[in-house]
Amino acid sequence: MSSATSPASGVSGKVPPPHVVEDCLGLVQLLSDGTVKRAPATLVLPDDAPPPDDDEAPVRWKDVVYDEARNLSLRMYVPSAAGAAVDGGVETKLKLPVLVYFHGGGFVVGSFASPEFHAACLRLAEELPAVVLSADYRLAPEHRLPAAVEDADALLSWLADQQEAAAGAGAGADPWLADAADLGRVFVSGDSAGANIAHHAVAASGWRLPLAGCVLLWPYFGGERRTASEAGCPGDVFLTLPLYDQMWRLALPSGATRDHPAANPFGPEAAGGPGGPGAGAELPSLLVAAGDRDMLIDRIREYVARVRAAAGNNRRVDLVEFPGEGHGFAIFEPDGEAAGELVRVVRRFVHGGDDAAAPAPRSG
Questions:
Q1: Can 298 be counted among the known catalytic residues?
Q2: pLDDT means over runs of 10, the chain (364 residues)
Q3: Distance from C-alpha of 207 to C-alpha of 194, rounded to nearest angstrom
Q4: Which of these is catalytic: 118, 200, 260, 327?
């Protein structure tokens, strides 16, 4: 473990010597005095990025600060597909949709620079294609919920500023976005805890930024009531019931239960009661994807049903289930058949075409 510590909350008093209260995957330790120890993380650093003028790179990428006060950055991926298109001898500018992406990790671990999330976003940028903005956010338990959602709000506000700057004289707009991004086609997405963040970031009305859709990959929601798939979760998978419970203890406000609205947007503590206003009525068109062996599959199905009920016939709400796959399958097996089909499903949703809800093949 790293020797660096930081306060997890406003815990007062000293109890020498401090002892470990929670140990999450050997990566994060919460001590009895409120400090947190984190193991050093393996990261893909900006020095590894291809030169901006590298015409051979399928995707160029760079890190951009979106919230200076909190020192929060995003990683911007622009595929080589962005550029000029020639039709009938006339060259026109080809701009791509924008996919905002929040990484998973139970709100406790992970970074946009983690190799698995970096690789996933490289693939999405190249194969959709789209301009991908993969955002970091503050992690728990140093910064408990709703900190991560507040950071997502800041990111979407930054992107709205970029849209306004690009639509005007262009002053202040990031040149990569101004050149390659269609800021009128923005999709907000994430996997696991990042999908939870994406839901909460777009569920409220009043955004300056028009959103084309929302893509939630194996979204990570909670609740005090156990679903059948949670209660029957085997012990030989990554996301087990004990890990799930522990990450919620570390992520939620002190003393909160898993029925807190940050975990359970349709639960008894939601605004206006179960399924209250804002839980799903304000979401744009929605694609949800998950493996049918995910411990959270029952909760995910219930979430989709509630969003459909809130949306009525006003918006598209698709659920795609991948037979035989578990939580985070495309992150853990990025070269697998199911991961490839997931990219195709997201591509159809983002760019139109065949029904995104077509049944996915069983993974070999």
A1: no
A2: 54 72 97 96 95 87 97 96 64 87 98 98 97 98 97 96 83 90 96 97 81 97 97 92 97 97 92 57 90 97 94 89 97 96 98 54 34
A3: 19
A4: 327
